[in-house]
Design goal:
Radius of gyration of chain A: 21 Å
Structural class of chain B: alpha/beta
CATH topology of chain B: Rossmann fold
Number of strands of chain A: 12
Order of helices and strands of chain B: EEEHEEHHHEHEHEEHH
CATH superfamily of the largest domain in chain A: Periplasmic binding protein-like II
Strand content of chain B: 15-25%
Distance between the termini of chain A: 73 Å
Number of helices of chain A: 12
CATH class of the largest domain in chain A: Alpha Beta
Largest interface: A-C, 46 and 38 residues
CATH class of chain B: Alpha Beta
Oligomer: heterotrimer
Chains: A alpha/beta, B alpha/beta, C mainly alpha
Helix content of chain B: 25-40%
Strand content of chain A: 15-25%
Largest sheet of chain A: 10 strands, mixed
Strand order of the largest sheet of chain B: 5-6-7-3-8-9
CATH topology of the largest domain in chain A: D-Maltodextrin-Binding Protein, domain 2
């Protein structure tokens, strides 16, 4: 009996120890709360090994919607936030949760819809396109998850002069999920959906979907990065976190972002301000 | 054995003991003294209360009224008694492990257990089956293993509830031989049976129960040849005693 | 994980990323099963062998908790383990340890409830024999747990199955971090969201095969040891 019990105890101990080992070795690792678009587009998969080779720092990415990522950071569960909703980010810094926000890169949003374009919105004007979708009641998938893309979509409805809160009906489908899930849903229902170009380019399950509106300057999508304020959360790894932030906006980091391509297309365009300017 | 309580459980005394289950009276104001000596056979038709009487002897049941005492004490732990059930439960381990388990529960020191278990298995004729899973033994082998487990407790009183009821004659004989040798080694045997041949072969005395009451108590030969009560006469004739 | 490969190619080439994901999945789930068994089995046995007021309420509660929604468990643990939560100082959110804790919470009720039922059934069979052998309370528990070992293996497998198949809780408390807390199920969720449906499906098939293999191995071990020890 005794030997059996001690064996079980040993096995349990081993299980806990082995599963706990990685966390004890995380001296040089940081947690970055970021967006589904940066992960689903494959950017981090490309960028992080380059950064690891340079700095020796492991970056652990939690991919969430921008709103959720900022909340994760507010709770002190991340060291760095890398998202794309400038007004929310500025509020985050103003509240004292972030140290300083840096522009990193941009891409743009695209309106994706059925190739046949049943609502007839193809063109360069996003405001007109949204107005048409609303008036015809064409199916539209909204992220509905407080993400950066969701925030951008809501801002665009205002630009189009539509109060989406009262205008939404059966045609407007809020799914409360990430970019990939929204594209899967749109693909299944032949609906229109606003997507960031990076995720769209790397998305495999397009079905009958294609870009219908792009190139409108109002579809600009800016990404920003900031260190979580260590004065708010002493657990923040400020040095390693700052190294990552600095690298992203450095010439080297910017060049790495520019060099990420899928099928020859560049997904993100670095636009950090030059150091010292 | 060092763990054994020094005091004796004998005589085992029933004073006006009744046992009821709900409204059903199982044993009715029974008084009885079981003293050291030759085997006591509890005899009677099915439903006469034999099993309940044995369970009370073991302390597995408590009387509804009346008093039971073991060597004058009213609630001693069953360290000096052992019980063999009509259908013994085999632990899901080997035959040897079943005996070792009983030895461990009886407080036998770990170091000597394996040897003692082997001795006990030899005593019941199961030495060859020591490493066999107990549940795969035949009915007779299982009953002998149950006897080995009971003897592992080094009992002063060995209670047996119709241990051969489901066994063939050969297996019955093997069990009876073990019981007789236990009796000869000084263990007080208290055994329920409704097999009159077995009663003749084993008993020093008979306690005859009918309808939950003690009807007759006599030396075996007297009971079998000159029953005193009409119930006993009917039972011995093979009539249904209701 | 290279997107251009299909799942079969990944297995055949022994893709190191995939191997790491499988190892993490199995490691976390096995650790959770061991922990939950260490707590749940004695707990279930205790509940089977004791009688006290409110016991039936507890039994119903335990049975109901077998259906705990993983997402709710994940969220509750997230709030507990977050730096701003009461257990934040341990810093285990977004680590495999947090995933082990979440899965342990999820499968503890399964193992405890099934143990309780098994032990209670076995106790009705063993009660007289163990009482006659004067077995004490602790001895009863250990004897019944040991003798019920083959039935309890099924409880462990049920727990393991739920742990290995679970995605909601590990996603929330693990964060699905590449190379660190990414499991089979969260990878399937991720590849689905990337629209990489064939790869997601292939990974799902691998997961099913692994769970099947573990069940078969457990079954074989059970049959083999049952022949040896009854």
């Amino acid at each position: 009996m005794t030997s059996r019990r001690s064996f079980v105890a040993l096995a349990i101990l081993l299980g806990i120890v082995s599963s706990g080992t990685p966390s004890s070795a995380q001296e040089r690792s940081i947690v970055v709360a970021s967006t589904t678009s940066t992960q689903d587009s494959g950017l981090f998969g490309y960028l992080l090994p380059i950064f690891k080779a340079k700095s020796g720092i492991d970056v652990k990415v939690i991919a969430q919607g921008t709103g959720q990522a900022l909340d994760t950071a507010r709770r002190g569960d991340a060291d760095v936030v890398f998202v794309h909703a400038k007004p929310q980010e500025e509020k985050f810094v103003a509240e004292g949760f972030g140290v300083k926000r840096f522009d990193v890169m941009y891409n743009d949003f695209v309106l994706v819809g059925p190739k046949s374009d049943p609502a007839g919105v193809k063109g360069k004007d996003i405001a007109t396109a949204l107005k048409t979708i609303e008036s015809k009641g064409a199916p539209f998938v909204s992220r509905g998850d407080r993400s950066g893309t969701h925030a951008a979509e809501l801002a665009l409805w205002i630009v189009a002069g539509i109060d989406i809160g009262s205008a939404k009906g059966a045609w407007y489908r809020e799914i409360g999920q990430g970019m990939g899930a929204a594209l899967n849903t749109a693909s299944a229902m032949n609906a229109y959906v606003l997507a960031d170009r990076g995720t769209w380019i790397s998305f495999k399950n397009r079905g009958d979907l294609d870009i219908v509106v792009e190139g409108d300057r109002r579809l600009f999508n800016q990404y920003g990065v900031m260190l979580v304020n260590p004065e708010r959360h002493p657990s923040v790894k400020k040095e390693a976190g700052q190294v990552f932030v600095d690298w992203l906006v450095s010439a080297e980091g910017q060049a790495a972002i520019a060099s990420y391509k899928i099928e020859g297309q560049q997904l993100f365009f670095p636009n950090a301000e030059k150091k010292g300017s | 054995m060092s763990m054994r309580a020094p005091a004796s459980d004998l005589p085992l005394m029933f004073e006006n003991v009744s046992l009821q289950a709900g409204a059903t009276i199982i044993l009715n104001s029974l008084s009885l003294t079981i003293a050291p000596g030759a085997p006591t056979l509890i005899v009677g038709p099915n439903g006469s209360g034999k099993t309940s009487l044995l369970r009370l002897c073991m302390g597995l049941a408590t009387p509804t009224s009346g008093r039971i005492s073991w060597g004058g004490r009213s609630d001693p732990a069953p360290t000096r008694r052992a019980f063999v059930f009509q259908r013994p439960v085999m632990l899901r381990r080997t035959a040897a492990a079943n005996v070792s388990y009983a030895l461990a529960q009886a407080g036998a020191p770990r170091s000597g257990r394996a040897r003692r278990a082997a001795d006990l298995l030899t005593r019941v004729g199961l030495a060859d089956l020591a490493s066999r899973p107990a549940r795969l033994l035949s009915g007779g082998e299982q009953q002998r293993l149950a006897l080995a487990r009971a003897l592992a407790r080094d009992p002063e009183i060995l209670l047996l509830d119709e241990p051969t009821a489901n066994l063939d004659p050969a297996a019955t004989r093997a069990v009876e031989e073990i019981v007789l040798s236990a009796a000869q080694s000084g263990i007080k045997i208290v055994m329920a049976s409704h097999d009159l041949g077995q009663v003749r072969r084993l008993a020093g005395e008979v306690v005859f129960l009918a309808r939950g009451a003690l009807c007759e108590r006599a030396a075996t030969a007297d009971f079998l040849d000159h029953p005193a009560t009409s119930e006993a006469r009917a039972f011995l004739r093979g009539d249904l005693v209701i | 994980m290279p997107d251009h490969l299909n799942a079969l190619q990944l297995i055949l080439s022994g893709d190191p990323t995939l191997v790491a994901i499988v190892r993490l999945s199995l490691g976390v789930s096995l650790a959770a099963v061991l922990l939950a068994a260490a707590i749940g089995m004695p707990l279930g046995a205790l509940l089977a062998l004791t009688r006290f007021p409110g016991r039936s309420v507890l039994v119903v509660l335990l049975n109901a908790m077998m259906g705990l929604p993983p997402v709710v468990v994940g969220l509750a643990l997230y709030l507990l383990l977050s730096r701003s939560g009461p257990l934040g100082e341990f810093g285990i959110l977004f680590t495999p340890t947090a995933m082990v804790v979440a899965q342990t919470v999820l499968i503890l009720p399964i193992i405890a409830a099934l143990t309780r039922q098994t032990i209670e059934d076995l106790w009705t069979e063993y009660r007289d024999e163990l009482s006659a052998m004067n077995v004490g309370a602790v001895g009863r528990m250990t004897t019944l747990l040991w003798d019920a070992r083959f039935s309890l293996l099924t409880a462990l497998l049920a727990g393991f199955g739920r742990a290995a198949a679970e995605v909601g809780a590990v996603m929330i408390v693990g964060g699905n971090i590449d190379g660190f807390t990414r499991t089979m199920t969260t990878t399937v969720a991720l590849e689905t969201s990337k629209g990489n449906l064939p790869l997601a499906m292939g990974l799902g098939a691998i997961l099913i095969v692994i769970v099947l293999a573990i069940n078969a191995a457990a079954w074989g071990t059970r049959a083999w040891s049952q022949r040896l020890t009854g």
